[in-house]
């Protein structure tokens, strides 16, 4: 007999966040960038109890929680604020994108997407129609800061990947 799926939240807001989880690199890391944004539901309302994981995925990274020294940890975890906001400080990835996993109430499992720091030739991006492609590209907001809003459903829904 198969056990039915259950939603992934909101318990994760209490059990999974850890201190300074949003910092994949220290503040003085050369070339550090900040990725910030909001998680929004289908009506465009903020999701105040989501949890995001950012994966750098670059070779040569240390253990997931090790933030000492000049390297990057490769992994960060950040709960959303009451207005649905989040932020990560990370190193610029060796690939053209960062991997982002979103846990939110009502989901049967987390959803995964990519955060492209610029619109570049890429097999995944090239396979998408322009409107969907645009949902994966972060907007530069000054030097070293990128905005990437996650829309869970509805108009402007972020492109999510199967894994």
User: Quick one: CATH class?
Assistant: Mainly Beta
CATH superfamily membership: Aromatic compound dioxygenase
Q: What's the mean pLDDT score? A: 85
> Helicity, in percent?
under 10%
Please, how many helices?
3
Number of domains: 1
Please compute the radius of gyration using only Cα atoms: 16 Å
From N to C, what is the helix and strand string? HEEEEEEHHEEE
Report the strand count: 9
Any idea what the shape is?
A: globular
- Indicate the CATH topology: Protocatechuate 3,4-Dioxygenase, subunit A
Low-confidence stretches: 59-67
CATH architecture verdict: Sandwich
Tell me about the largest β-sheet: 5 strands, mixed
Report on this structure.
This protein has 163 residues and is mainly β. It has a single domain, classed as Aromatic compound dioxygenase (Protocatechuate 3,4-Dioxygenase, subunit A), CATH 2.60.130. The chain is 8% helix and 27% strand. It has 3 helices and 9 strands. The chain has helices at residues 12-15, 123-126, 130-134; strands at 33-40, 51-55, 75-79, 85-90, 97-103, 111-116, 139-140, 145-147, 150-151. The strands form 2 sheets. Strands 1, 4, 7, 8 and 9 form a 5-stranded mixed β-sheet that branches. The chain has a 4-stranded antiparallel β-sheet with strand order 3-2-5-6, with no helix packed on it. The longest helix is centred in the C-terminal third of the chain and has 5 residues, at 130-134.
């Amino acid at each position: 007999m198969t056990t039915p799926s259950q939603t992934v939240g909101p318990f994760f807001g209490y059990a999974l966040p850890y201190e300074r989880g949003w910092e994949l690199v220290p503040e003085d890391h050369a070339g550090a960038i900040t990725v910030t944004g909001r998680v929004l539901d289908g009506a465009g309302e903020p999701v105040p109890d989501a949890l995001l994981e950012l994966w750098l995925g670059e070779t040569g990274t240390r253990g997931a929680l090790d933030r000492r020294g000049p390297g990057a940890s490769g992994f960060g975890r950040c709960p959303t604020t009451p207005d649905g906001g989040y932020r990560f400080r990370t190193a610029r990835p060796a690939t053209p994108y960062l991997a982002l996993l979103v846990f939110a109430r009502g989901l049967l499992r987390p959803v995964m997407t990519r955060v492209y720091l610029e619109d570049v030739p890429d097999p995944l991006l090239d396979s998408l129609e322009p409107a969907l492609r645009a949902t994966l590209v972060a907007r530069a907001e000054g030097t070293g800061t990128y905005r990437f809003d996650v829309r869970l459903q509805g108009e402007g829904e972020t492109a999510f990947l199967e894994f």
